[in-house]
Design goal:
- The protein is of the alpha/beta class.
- It folds into two domains: 4-200, Spore Coat Polysaccharide Biosynthesis Protein SpsA, Chain A; 211-371, 2-C-methyl-D-erythritol 2,4-cyclodiphosphate synthase (60s Ribosomal Protein L30, Chain: A).
- The protein is built from eleven helices and 19 strands.
- It has helices spanning 33-40, 58-61, 76-84, 104-112, 153-159, 169-175, 249-262, 267-270, 283-296, 319-330, 348-351; strands spanning 4-9, 27-28, 31-32, 48-53, 68-71, 91-96, 119-125, 130-132, 135-137, 143-145, 149-152, 180-184, 211-224, 228-230, 233-235, 239-241, 299-309, 337-342, 355-366.
- Strands 1, 4, 5, 6, 7, 10, 11 and 12 form an eight-stranded mixed sheet that branches.
- A hairpin with a 2-residue loop joins strand 2 (27-28) and strand 3.
- Helix 7 (249-262) runs parallel beside helix 9 (283-296).
- It is elongated and about 80 Å long.
């Protein structure tokens, strides 16, 4: 297939999907949906496979395989434009990652007819009564258009060089006067748009029950005349932590544990202390962003366990409120938040009352979409 490049579009933000996890990152067994879909196309031996995604997700995607990754745009059309800049072959096959149950017979019908028109499009006829606005319409000749669609690359590039937005390639190609050939589509090629669509996609198996463990550690010295926050709670002391943010050493350790379990890096990569927007920021806001990211990448938080090493302040009076605060942000039961405190037996910087250190462990599992 040296004359054809595959482009898979998956830069959307899944706003209509309605779940914490983006649909691209639903796990099918042990593979995220975007990877599950991309691998199904490998058998055709395309010259190159280009996966289009948001710029934030591409570094993580590269940990799965060596496909070509391209940054998406604000619209499907912008994403396609970005991808086509990297296509050198005569033909390009464009599909949406959300079209996740691949009918190989349909794909073969598209490929077998690529020389018969400028754009080859799978379509389904309509058997139900059809209305346009409030009036019945003639369903004869009406079609439901699917992807993937195969186009002559140079013509598709020209067709989408316009401010007019098209919802698929064939609409742009038709508007430009190019020849369209319809081939039989597939009832199995249903597009995943809403969470309720999952019931219709029988090719998808439930996620693996594997669990993931992450470890985080953070240490901060004390600073006089600064408010102290620990586990999201204000501690009544006349000193706080020396830090770029509010210095909540416990939350920082928890963030690192969560990111570590998900394989997403560390707190410094997401919230660098060189960025002024994080100056004196409430660490609870950082934790909320971290939880949102971990959830969006297909993970559910199971529990956290932290150990606070400190001579001062006394932690016991605040433990219950700390659990409540953290469980609310993490969206887990309070019993799944364990907080322990110990001293250093007067040894080291902790023993000299110069600061404290916190160790955190977090466990995650794949979000089980099959149970919703």
């Amino acid at each position: 297939m040296n004359d054809t490049t595959l482009v898979l579009l998956g830069a959307g933000n899944s706003t209509r999907f309605g779940l914490k996890t983006k649909k691209q990152w639903l796990y099918i067994g042990e593979e995220p949906l975007w990877y599950f879909v991309t691998k199904q196309f490998k058998k055709y031996g395309f010259k190159e496979t280009i996966v289009v995604s948001s710029i934030q997700e591409i570094p993580y995607m590269k940990k799965f395989d060596t496909f070509a990754f391209v940054e998406g745009g604000e619209t499907r059309q912008e994403s396609l434009k970005n991808a086509l800049q990297n296509v050198l072959t005569k033909y390009v096959l464009v599909s949406d990652i959300a079209r996740c149950c691949i009918d190989h017979d349909m794909i073969q019908r598209i490929l077998d007819n690529k020389e018969k028109a400028n754009c080859i499009v799978p379509a389904l006829s309509i058997s139900d009564t059809l209305y346009m606005d409030d009036s019945p319409a003639n369903r004869e000749g009406a079609k439901l258009i699917q992807t993937p669609q195969l186009s002559e690359t140079k013509l598709l590039v020209k067709a989408i060089q316009t401010d007019e937005l098209f919802t698929d390639d064939s609409s742009a190609m038709h508007k430009s006067g190019y020849k369209i050939l319809f081939v039989e589509g597939s009832q199995n090629a249903h597009k995943l748009t809403f969470a309720s669509d999952l019931e219709k996609l029988t090719c998808l198996k439930a996620p693996s029950l594997k669990t993931f463990t992450g470890f985080g550690i953070d240490t901060h010295p004390f600073e006089q005349n600064k408010p102290m926050y620990l586990c999201g709670e204000k501690i009544e002391e006349n000193f706080g932590f020396k830090a770029h943010s509010d210095g909540d050493v416990a939350i920082h350790a928890i963030i690192d544990a969560l990111l570590g379990a998900a394989g997403l890096g560390d707190i410094g990569e997401f919230f660098p202390d060189s960025d002024d927007k994080y100056k004196d920021i409430d660490s609870k806001e950082l934790l909320k962003l971290c939880v949102e990211k971990v959830n969006s990448y297909g993970f559910a938080i199971n529990n956290i366990d932290i150990t606070i090493l400190a001579e001062i302040p006394k932690i016991s009076p605040y433990k219950e409120k700390m659990r409540q605060t953290l469980s609310g942000i993490l969206d887990i039961n309070q019993r799944s938040v364990n907080i322990k405190a110990t001293t250093s037996e007067s040894l080291g910087f902790i023993g000299r009352n110069e600061g404290i250190s916190v160790h955190a462990v977090a466990t995650l599992s794949y979000f089980n979409w099959a149970e919703i």
